[in-house]
Write a structure and sequence with these properties.
Length: 258
């Protein structure tokens, strides 16, 4: 392996670490409504990144789908505001600071997606996502203790060893989010389309808001929720169908010239 490969893995690890860290601070200092709304800005950043950095063309359909997705997100946000006062459950409530953290998280996440896609296309003949993920985990293991010490000394965090129950919870959460969700997401970015992945992740929002209705024993068909959910699903179907059509055309041309 050359030095570029290790540098690439280290950069990916930093981008992913900052994205998740800022996201958690955004949730802590603001409301879940603000975080869910602003986190989907990554869709717009990825579209811009494809044009400016990856030098890819963005179709009118994708731009239209992004507008539909943002409209659906706006309707869902209004629904969530009417459902409950979300700020009550926060440890702190500094909306501006939480919004800044969330926007930073969206920027770092979009950068992670674009860097991963660029490297996987440039070195596609010997690119192994499992190996990249392994080195990212190794670098994370080496860097995280120093970050925790710095945050503790700066009194930003008061780090202490977790209890056995918390350790089990952290282990299960890491197993589900890192080994399953994050890895499948990275495979989708590498072998499919980062734009499609960004739209797909946006579908988490209507699902979470639906779970909120169940948890709050306030299950009812609200037109804000139904319309917003349908718009986000429609936007996802639009980008998937366009990408699937392009793949079908490529395969058809390949068969024609075989």
């Amino acid at each position: 392996y050359n030095q570029n490969f290790y540098t690439f893995c280290f950069i990916l690890m930093l981008l992913w670490t900052f994205a998740t860290t800022f996201l958690y601070y955004g949730i802590a200092f603001s409301s879940a409504i603000t975080v869910n709304a602003l986190a989907n800005i990554s869709i717009i950043i990825i579209l811009l990144g494809k044009v400016l950095l990856l030098k890819n063309k963005v179709s009118i359909l994708k731009i239209f789908a992004a507008l539909i997705c943002m409209t659906g997100l706006f309707l869902l946000t209004n629904f969530r505001l009417n459902l409950t006062n979300d700020s009550i459950s926060n440890i702190y409530h500094f909306p501006l600071l939480g919004s800044i953290f969330t926007i930073l998280s969206a920027c770092f996440y979009a950068s992670y997606v674009l860097v991963l896609k660029y490297y996987s296309k440039r070195y596609k003949h010997y690119f192994d996502m499992m190996e990249v993920f392994g080195y990212m985990g190794l670098f994370n293991l080496l860097v995280t203790p120093f970050l925790l010490i710095i945050l503790t000394l700066m009194q930003v965090e008061n780090f202490s060893l977790p209890s056995p129950g918390e350790s089990i919870n952290l282990f299960m959460n890491a197993g589900i989010t890192c080994l399953i969700c994050d890895q499948l997401q990275s495979y989708a970015i590498t072998y499919f389309s980062p734009v499609v992945v960004a739209f797909g992740i946006g579908l988490i929002v209507p699902f979470l808001y639906g779970m909120d209705m169940v948890n709050l024993n306030n299950v009812h068909l609200n037109w804000w929720y139904v319309a917003g959910s349908l718009l986000m699903i429609v936007s996802f179907v639009m980008v998937v169908s366009e990408h699937a059509h392009k793949l079908f055309k490529k395969k058809s041309k390949a068969k024609l010239f075989d």
